[in-house]
Amino acid sequence: MIRVLVADDQPLVRAGVTALLDAEPDLEVVAVAADGGEALEAARRTRPDVACLDVRMPVRNGIEVARELCAPGADPEMPVLMLTTFDLDDYVFGALEAGASGFLLKDADPDTITGAVRQVAAGNGTLDQALTRRVLREFVSRRSLQPVTGARADGLLTARERDVLLLLAQGMSNEDIAAALVVEVSTVKSHLARMLPKLGVRSRLQAVVWAYQNRVVAVPGAEDGRPA
User: 4-aspartylphosphate modification sites (predicted)?
Assistant: First the structure.
């Protein structure tokens, strides 16, 4: 059973997401919160497997809460899925930089939301399909998320770690990567655990952004100026 914290300052949204998740046989909402302060208290009290956070909340916004929950050595440290009503803004980038494992638009279909919770709980990252290219292109064009450059990474990453990074950037899960490389899932997790600190990132999603940002992989449409 995947235990979930739902935090949103809009009662209807909070109730709707809670009902959606509780209707799934493998998901259980163990706490709800109406603001960021309540969310942190509930996270510490119930220690869920995933924190599903609204971006804009009173007291403490979702970015601040994610930064505390995703920090290395945090107590508790847990994966965060952000929900947003925004197409693209600094709140979304802030969530990514805070270490969130993924973000979705609130109008995503129910299967996408429940699937994202499962993916995040499994240690995988998730990006809203409608935002992926735009977010990556924006980071490439105007953000400098991490100090490690692609050239430096060639000397930092092993050949197999680089393989894992390239497959990760294609949106593959740990299971997909393991199948592609013909290794155990535990081996993929070990490569990720060693790779992320080398790149100076805290999550799979940040590693993907880093890969695009440093031209390890190319953003579709970026070379010819086509809109994403």
Answer: 54
CATH at residue 8: 3.40.50.2300
**Tokens 């129910």, residue located:** 110
- Under a CB-based contact definition with an 8 Å cutoff, are residues 127 and 103 in contact? yes
CATH number at 194 reads 1.10.10.10
Q: Is there a domain that residue 225 lies in? A: no
CA atoms within 13 A on the CB side of 110: 9
Do 118 and 185 lie in a common domain? no
Contact 80, 51 (CB under 8 A): yes
The answer to whether 94 and 65 have CB atoms below 8 angstroms apart is: no
pLDDT on residue 226:
43
Percentages helix, strand, coil for the chain, rounded to the nearest 5? Answer: 50, 15, 35
Hey, what are 145's tokens?
């998320």
The answer on 201 and 119 residing in a single domain is: no
Contact 171, 177 (CB under 8 A): no
Is residue 202, in this structure, part of any structural domain at all?
A: yes
Q: pLDDT, tens digit, for every residue of 176-223?
A: 899 999 999 999 989 998 998 888 777 787 788 788 777 777 655 544
pTM of the predicted structure, to 2 decimals: 0.74
Range of the domain at 93: 2-130
Residue 220 Ramachandran class (φ > 0 left, ψ -120 to 50 alpha, else beta): beta
